[in-house]
Amino acid sequence: MVSSPVKSEWDKVSFASTLFLCPILDRLLLTVPSKWYAELRLGLQEALVNAAKHGNNLDPRKQVIVRFCFEEGAYWWIISDEGGGFRPPARDLAEDSMCLPQVESESGRGMFLLNQIFDRVVWNRQGTEICLCKQLYAQNDRDPLLH
Description:
About 25% of the residues lie in helices and about 20% in strands. The protein has 3 helices and 5 strands, in the order E-H-H-E-E-H-E-E. It has helices at about 20-30, 35-55, 110-115, and strands at about 10-15, 65-70, 75-80, 120-125, 130-135. The protein has a 5-stranded antiparallel beta sheet, with helices on one face. Strand 2 and strand 3 form a beta hairpin. The longest helix has 22 residues, at about 35-55.
């Protein structure tokens, strides 16, 4: 399991592996400020599609589970699938410009996108769970980044 922030209550939603994600995304983004809404919707959609399509092979008998919370100025989402997993990337794609995916390439764009949108992207060792974090406050600063 991926380490997560200290929180007594997490919300949880699960769904059959399908690409009908609008109601799920709406729920996951219910309290997100409008400034971050479109960007985070794109990132979460990418992560959910990956879990349903690549993790669970769109098998409706398999579930995608999302736990989420807002804690100390940051939004957290932990997305798990029931697939066989994969080997997560060894380095941060957001910081390595040499890892920019080719426009024509079908692989790598999603992970690059996740690293651009979220402040933290952490996979479990099996590649079946991802933890995503978006901080609304600068590190060591309580001034919101919302303005």
